[in-house]
Amino acid sequence: MRAAYKMKKTTMSGTLYRLIYCSRNVILQALPDTAMEDAISAIVASARSANKANNITGALLFTGSGFAQVLEGPREVVERTFDRICADPRHADVTVLSFTPTERRCFPDWPMGFTAQIAADTDDPLAPLLGAAASPGPRATTGSDVLRLLEKLVHRQDEWAAA
Amino acid sequence: MREVWAKSASDGRAGSVPPSRVKPRLSAPSGKSANRMASAALARLPLGVAVIDADARLVYWNEQAAGLFGVPPLMATGLPALPAILAAIPRLTPQQRDRIVTFCATHIEAGDRTEPESFLRLSLARDHRLAIQIRGIGNRRWMLVIDDGSNAAATGRTVATAGGDAWVDPLTGLSNRRHFNRILADRLAGDGPDARHTVLVIDLDRFTSVNDTFGRPIGDALLCLVAERLRREVRDDDLVGRLGGDEFVVLIRSGDRAEPLAARVVANLAHPFLVEGHIAHIGASIGIAEYTGPDITADELMRCAELALYDAKTVGRGTWRFFDSARAARAQGRRDMETGLRKAVAMGELSLVFQLQLNIRTQALTGAEALLRWHHPTFGDVSPDIFIPLAEETGCIVELREWALRTACQEATAWPLPLSVAVKVSARQLDNSDRLAATVQAALQASGLAPGRLELEIVDSAMLSKETHVLDTLHRLHEAGVHITMDNFGTSAAPASFPFDRIKLDRSFVADLGDDVDAVAAARAGIAPDGGDHAPQGQDPWLTAPIGAAEINAFLRRFVPAPDNIPPPR
Questions:
Q1: pLDDT at position B12, please?
Q2: In chain A, which residue's Cα lies nearest the Cα of B226?
Q3: Which of A83, A87, A99 lies nearest to residue B279, judging by beta carbons?
Q4: Is the separation of the CB atoms in B62 and B49 below 8 Å?
């Protein structure tokens, strides 16, 4: 399952930065579940090829209400990628949770290959970030919450793949 | 740029050399200085010269071509494709654009086997022709020589263009104001009557605070990102320009597309920006004006869009507004009134009327309040409800109030009874309390009015957050004998931080008391109900309306027992 994707140790330009943002889903909610999965895989596919070319890794979390994404890569590339993402009409209220230089990548093996989807009937961990009413259960309110959540999901997936 | 080259080199295509090496190859190979001279000459040639590669991407263009195409001398991202570039040429129809692309493609396909030269001539308008010559220059590169027809007579323009970035905003690579205006004028003149041209003027919100917080270089980088986001939102046929500062503009050939485009731009620019490691939040307001026909010029269309932008900013930013001619007329009227108001004192258009004040219980006259009136030669009598707020807003209230103070003191000295005269003091006057003190002193001196007869009315809200030196000034005036009254008491929760001589209730206070004079009196003895310019509904008919300077003299004379024997009191 896990793609063997070798990242270059040194980046061509710029310090390594990590961006964590979330945004509200404005179009996909209206779609039936199957169409939504197709739409998500289309987003992931285009992100994956662009990120591979740009030396970017990260993870995407999709919940019913919105997206949270971690992008890691050379600063300039992350900035340019984010700017392109902003133009996407499928989401709104883009909020940058954190944008900081970092020593190491948290998702070194994932050119956006990792995506997590929270089923619609479970508690939405992004709800408090997106301004919706707080729900019980796991919640993310900061960038590091989102990061921890995604890392946990990666870990779980690794275990599942090893089993 | 580097990435693109690396990619095409890996395609194994012969002649894939970086564009930086193209220019020297075009020149006579006789030393570096000769190369430099040749590139400079080529760059400033009064003909458009562009070199395309096998994918019809521009790898080189001189300044004249940049002027025609509206492309920057250097692009930040990749090589511009010819079809996209052609879209910016004024008056070029889609069919003509296709003809040029096909023309180039045919020559590229034929490779080097084709005849060495070929021409394409297009008629853009009555006296505007475009001639394009294509010629292979080896290494799978083709040179386009473009003559936009106006060339022969355009030596003046060529000289101007030779200055460098005459058409292009050097920071963002967008069209500059000059280029945008030219293309706008061309499109308005060249397109048929069915064409719907719409201008969207886009102004960034909170850009100055980004500049202040992060510094100018970050601000400049942010402007480049804004330019990128705008480019991404528009179509090839649309023209994006930077008018200057943080003001951008988009010209589209559609009326219906304007609003969705404005909505997208507002939404997109409201998203955060990542600029050189910083997070910046701005936003955008947009003014939209659609071309309605030959009765308006390109300049007027731009002004309409600017007016609409002003509207969008006024309603709260982060939104867009269409130009509204009725609203523009109102705005124009307001501006005329503002101008008139600034001249009102000098033109002698102001006058005073007096509202008599009496002790409700004793029915004794106590004084009169001076109220400003303005008669404009064309607007006629302008209601104080209109011109006073306008004067407050524009700041000329200080001049008006000072005039009222001087004039009221002068006129009161002529009254047959030593009544007090009240004048309003604006909050703006309290901002400069030293000037207020000096003005009061000068008015008293010039008129010879006893300080005890002058009453300054200060709105209680103006007392809020006033510094101690304002209170000091009021105390000084008070000690000199001038009375200080709190006006409009009850309109704010200001604590009475000054020992006022009198307190005037706001009319809303007294309205509830109706005709019950005793209740009014009980509220506070000796208070004159302040009905502003509308007199309170009292029992005394002569209290109902303010009266002019001549009338008040005649009126007061009735109260003087032996008018001939008593000199006007001092």
A1: 38
A2: A83
A3: A99
A4: yes
Contact check, Cβ <8 Å, A101/B275: no
For residues B50 and B134, give the distance between their C-alpha atoms in angstroms, rounded to a whole number: 10
Taking the domains of chain B in order of start, what are their residue ranges? 1-166, 169-323, 337-557
CB B19 within 8 A of CB B78: no
For residue B273, the chain A residues in CB contact (below 8 A) are: 83
Contact A79 B232 (CB under 8 A): no
Q: Which one is the CATH code of B1-166: 3.30.450.20, 3.50.50.60, 3.30.70.270, 3.30.70.330?
A: 3.30.450.20
Distance from CA of B261 to the nearest CA of A (A): 12
Predicted pLDDT of residue B13: 40
pLDDT tens for residues B388-428?
988 988 888 999 999 999 999 999 999 888 889 999 998 88
Identify the three-state secondary structure at position B255.
coil
With a CB-CB cutoff of 8 Å, which residues 88-127 of chain B face chain A? none
The pLDDT assigned to B373 comes to 94
Query: For the purposes of burial, counting CB atoms within 10 Å of the CB of B443, is it exposed (0-12), middle (13-18) or buried (19 or more)?
Result: buried
- What is the pLDDT of chain B when averaged over all its residues? 76
- Where are the domains positioned within chain A? 16-162
- CATH H-level, domain B337-557: superfamily: EAL domain (3.20.20.450)
Nearest to A98 by CA among B498, B278, B508, B568: B278
Dihedral-angle region of residue B458 (phi above 0 means left; psi in -120 to 50 means alpha; beta otherwise): beta
Q: Under CATH, which number does the domain B169-323 receive?
A: 3.30.70.270
Q: What is the pLDDT of residues B347-381, one digit of tens each?
A: 889 999 998 887 766 777 888 899 999 998 888 89
Contacts of A19 in chain B (CB under 8 A): 274
**DSSP state, B175?**
B
SS (H, E, C) B122-162: EEEECCEEEEEEEEEEECCEEEEEEECCCCCCCHHHHHHHC
* φ/ψ (deg, to 5) at B365: -65, 135
- Which chain A residue lies closest to B76 (C-alpha atoms)? A80
Q: What is the pLDDT of residues B432-474, one digit of tens each?
A: 888 999 999 999 999 999 999 999 988 766 665 556 777 888 8
Higher model confidence: residue B276 or residue B563? B276
ipTM of the complex: 0.78
Which residues, listed in sequence order, are joined to residue B278 by a DSSP beta bridge? B275
CB contacts of A101 in chain B (<8 Å) are: 277
Report the candidate in B249, B246, B74, B83 with the shortest Cα–Cα distance to residue B179: B249
User: A67 in contact with B at a CB cutoff of 8 Å?
Assistant: no
Residue range A16-162 forms a domain whose CATH class is: alpha beta
Other C-beta atoms closer than 10 Å to the C-beta of B71 total 21
CB contact under 8 A, B268 and A87: yes
Name which of B226, B271, B279 to mutate to probe chain A: the one with the most chain A Cβ atoms within 10 A of its Cβ.
Answer: B271
B365 class by beta-carbon count within 10 Å (0-12 exposed, 13-18 middle, 19+ buried)? middle
- The token duo for B246 is 């943080």
In angstroms, the separation between the Cα of residue A17 and the nearest Cα of chain B is: 8
pLDDT tens sequence across A39-69: 777 777 777 777 777 888 888 888 777 888 8
